[in-house]
Design goal:
binds adenosine-5'-diphosphate, single chain, about 230 residues, alpha/beta
Length: about 230
């Protein structure tokens, strides 16, 4: 259900079709939640969708668990199928979407352009944060098992740790081990960085500095988005 604040925001904001790129730990999750509220469009995170499937023990979840925990990528074919289905839902087809974690390979980006021909991705934004900084953020990262909200461990954490947003359990992700983190960052360089050229060729690539407070980064992001929509 849409509440009255959201209705007012919808009248102010025309929606958006955005892909957010950026290294693991760059703050995509945090910023996507804010952007999604601001532009009243669904935040579609393939990582969250896969983790939900793992928790629910679906066929997809069973297949994906070992791949995710090792820091590898789920196959393009499966990922494209999941996203294609999600984009058909009313919210995405009427308002747009903010994609987080997809596309992650050039093959996925090409497939995405094919399935969104009527409502193509308007812009891809690279949230730029150096590798050394994301490494330290990721080892302290904790997430809500239910809503995906992100937290940082200080070393003296509440126990049990309850999410401020939804009351879910705040935990360390199984794939936030040093080995899996390094695998994911290496894969980001080889598989995902080429997307910057892909979106650049069609004039849809933008870069935003992701270093700074969440509020500062959000301000930078909305300036770039509003220049385009
Ligand atoms: P991170 O950005 O920290 O890697 P995500 O939550 O985006 O975390 O994704 C977690 C895992 O889910 C990935 O390491 C990968 O195994 C899988 N995954 C998510 N999105 C995709 C995708 N588009 N293609 C392939 N695998 C994916």
């Amino acid at each position: 259900m849409i509440n009255s604040d959201e209705r007012a925001e919808m009248q102010m904001n025309p929606g958006a079709r955005i892909v957010l790129l950026g290294r693991q730990g760059a703050g995509k999750g945090t910023q996507c939640v804010r952007l999604s509220r601001h532009y009243v469009v669904p935040h579609i995170s393939t990582g969250d969708m896969l983790r939900a499937a793992v928790r629910e023990g679906t066929e997809l979840g069973k297949m994906a668990k070992a791949v995710i925990d090792a820091g590898q990528l789920v196959s393009d074919e499966i990922m494209v199928g999941i996203v294609a289905e999600r984009l058909q839902a009313d919210d995405a087809s009427t308002r747009g979407y903010i994609l987080d974690g997809f596309p992650r390979t050039v093959a996925q980006a090409i497939a995405l352009d094919e399935i969104t021909q009527d409502q193509p991705v308007g812009m891809a934004i690279d949230l730029v944060v150096p590798r050394e900084l994301v490494l330290s953020r990721l080892s302290a990262r904790r997430v809500c098992r239910d809503c995906g909200a992100n937290y940082q461990s200080t070393g003296v954490d509440p126990s049990p740790w309850i999410c401020e947003n939804c009351g879910g359990d705040v935990v360390q992700r199984d794939d936030d081990t040093p080995q899996a983190i390094n695998n994911r960052l290496d894969l980001y360089e080889t598989q995902t960085q080429p997307l910057i050229d892909y979106y650049g060729q069609s004039g849809r690539m933008f870069h935003v500095d992701g270093v700074g407070s969440p509020d500062d980064v959000f301000d930078r992001l909305t300036k770039v988005v509003e220049g385009q929509i």
